[in-house]
């Protein structure tokens, strides 16, 4: 039995966002982001239990409302006011392995061959099953982008269009979309993040008393689920009644010009792109006013809505902090009418609250979890080329640059992405091939029709076909950074950090997983294990220590072991290794060991690139030796930039030498 929704301790913003989404699903979905074990899934399942049930047309696969049936329902037409059947609110969970057919529906091939029409033979997908209920996607950041687009389109419009494989139909799919994700396992693109109506960071409280209350509530429920449900039964019924009442008054809630201008002024001041932020904030404010039983939106409603709808819309790049500074948001919203003439004091408004220390819509006795992040590093001011870097740490990077195209050799079959060539199932069909395993409908029907023109249509085993596809896949980008003493000079460490940041930004755009290793002293360190969170990798790079000896062989061996482990875990994802070093190695027999380690790594058949970070008028060319044993391409840091050819690389070297010569002369 699920823990009751009202039994969850804390997480006030998450609960409120889910309730506002239940009042008005047109807000566009709710995204809960945060670390594991913070009751995200428990809240979603508890919400479904308190949602009011619905009346549906009997035997309608699309859950049409008998009072106002969908005129375009594939199972229709249904006469208004016809027979009704009560059904509790439905929770539909979308698995990570879902395909287009699972989500939007597909044709039932046996029924097609039996002569059924398109509508009759259409097998509804999860979007149809979720109509007038809740569609829940756990780890939505791991779902393919095109499927997230489909879900968000349906959540925003309330309808699903199916135009594929000879199907052309539309049906209602009005549901509350709830996604949960752990940002450390990968980020959503800002374009997709913006399309979620509300986004709430969910964190565990740092208050020991609150944490004790969470444990107590969970233990009580686990020991006696029936008693826990009975304790919260009246409160759950009250919340259900409040949802029904809020839905009934939603269309009558008014928005004054003053509050509308407050919303649009805040969105403009915060630099929110487009108009979706303004619209969603208004809808959320209206839903909050209806939830509170008011017929007019107040400044408090706007503040609550802005806190839930605007912070994630300020993010524009892969390394931008998605959290809005609360004081900046409060300043953008301006003073309330009641606060305009009140002098400020030390006990001022709670950031994002309305008029007092408590947050509207949230219990005052539960402290809010801290959601701030350390923004130092990427936005730090330049300390100047002539000043030494802080002892033991790398110099801050410059702005990231576009990276030249890198891709694995040959064709793979890895997950859908934007980097290397793929012959996997996600690509575009370019031809059809005969197969007895997993034939596809369209090429099979085409082969059968063309094989016996003029004869009665039949399908034989010799007509079975599958599509030959070509597309792009995502890869595992393994960065190996030399952070030893030979790379610790301020200019060189800043150049390496900038190159690494640029490679991470490129991996983000191409949907790759990344891993970061460094080597210094006597060993190599896995700074970031393979992850889809490029933001996490960028954060951990900011404080990487530098200095010490250069165990190049240890770094290459650590990469080889990581590549072998990942080949067992995810054999379809091909690795691309990028080594940034000057090629120097210290210790007895260091260079021969490094060459042998490079040759061993080459035997894994991983595509590799060596970025030569050597500087100065006298160059030993040791990185080239490593590249030769690694069977890798060799480039310089200037040559790593996009569209870099031999002339551009030579120009980059010449320009860098000229700048150093002028600084030395000065």
Strand and helix layout:
Elements: H1 12-23, E1 30-34, H2 40-50, E2 54-56, E3 85-87, E4 91-93, H3 100-104, E5 105-107, H4 109-113, H5 118-121, E6 122-124, H6 126-129, E7 134-138, H7 145-157, E8 159-164, E9 167-172, E10 176-181, H8 190-195, E11 198-202, H9 208-223, H10 225-231, H11 233-249, H12 257-269, H13 276-291, H14 299-309, H15 326-333, E12 416-422, E13 428-434, H16 441-451, E14 465-473, E15 476-482, H17 490-509, E16 513-520, E17 523-531, H18 534-541, H19 552-569, E18 575-581, H20 590-602, E19 607-612, H21 622-630, E20 633-636, H22 646-665
Parallel strand pairs: 1-10, 1-11, 4-7, 7-10, 15-16, 15-18, 18-19, 19-20
Antiparallel strand pairs: 2-3, 5-6, 8-9, 12-14, 13-14, 16-17
Helix pairs in contact: 1-2, 1-13, 9-10, 11-13, 12-13, 12-15, 13-14, 14-15, 17-18, 19-20, 20-21
Rg estimate, integer Å = 29 Å
Share of helix among residues? 25-40%
Structural class: alpha/beta
Mean pLDDT: 81
Gap from first CA to last CA: 75 Å
In DSSP terms, counting alpha (H) and pi (I) runs of 4 or more, how many helices?
22
Sheet with most strands: strand arrangement:
17-16-15-18-19-20
Largest sheet: 6 strands, mixed
Description:
It is globular and about 85 Å long. Strands 17-16-15-18-19-20 form a 6-stranded mixed beta sheet, sandwiched between helices. A 5-stranded parallel beta sheet has the order 4-7-10-1-11, sandwiched between helices. The protein has a 3-stranded antiparallel beta sheet with strand order 12-14-13, with helices on one face. Strand 16 and strand 17 form a beta hairpin. It is built from 22 helices and 20 strands. Mean pLDDT is 81; it is low at 339-391 and 644-652. Helix 12 (257-269) crosses helix 15. 37% of the residues lie in helices and 17% in strands. With 666 residues, it is α/β, with parallel strands linked by helices.
